[in-house]
Specification:
Length: 193
């Protein structure tokens, strides 16, 4: 549902530029991050904005997430400049790009050296999508703190189906008990003959 209201990506460009025209975060659907976890990033961005620090964030997990500009994969600073320029039609504020290799921070297509230095001190996220998400949230928090804004850490997403495995365990135990009871009755009836 979180990504359902996002505009459809153009086939001739990079998907993040289409999403970020109307939204504050881009989390590629193929990244394997749940809507609830993606909402944690949106919550951090909204928290920063509420304190007066406006930023949009693009998570890029693979070359595929860049669409027609796949050659920029692995170069978050360069892509931050590129994407920032593309967004100037509607957005001239800060942009954070997070890739497994690191971060890029720009405003209207120009790198912001002081803020870039802040995220350059962070560990590069690495490949797992969960690392990408956690690193993006931490980068937003650090950048906002540099601007004097405190952004609380969004709590981990609660999986609504946490009781699901327990249901199957209980059902399995009941079936096993029924089979054992049935087997016991069959054995007793044969033994009494």
């Amino acid at each position: 549902m979180f990504l359902a209201c996002a505009p459809v990506a153009r086939a001739d460009g990079d998907p993040a530029s289409d999403y970020l025209l109307t939204q504050t975060t881009f989390v590629p659907p193929d990244l394997g991050i749940s809507d609830a976890d993606a909402a944690r990033l949106a919550t951090a961005v909204q928290g920063a904005r509420a304190g007066g620090y406006t930023i949009r964030v693009a998570l890029i997990g693979s070359r595929y997430d860049l669409g027609s500009v796949g050659s920029l994969y692995g170069q978050p600073k360069l892509y931050a400049r590129f994407l920032g320029k593309e967004l100037t039609l509607v957005y001239h504020g800060r942009l954070l790009v997070v890739m497994p290799q690191g971060y890029g921070v720009s405003r209207a297509g120009t790198l912001i050296p002081a803020e870039q230095a802040t995220v350059d001190r962070l560990q590069p996220p690495g490949a797992p999508p969960a690392n990408l998400l956690a690193s993006a949230i931490e980068a937003v928090r650090r950048l906002a703190a540099r601007g004097g804004v405190t952004v609380p850490v969004p709590p981990p997403a609660q999986s609504g189906g946490s009781s699901f495995p327990w249901i199957w365990i209980v059902v399995g135990l009941l079936v096993a008990a029924a089979l054992a009871a049935g087997g016991s009755l069959t054995y007793r009836s044969r033994a009494s003959r």
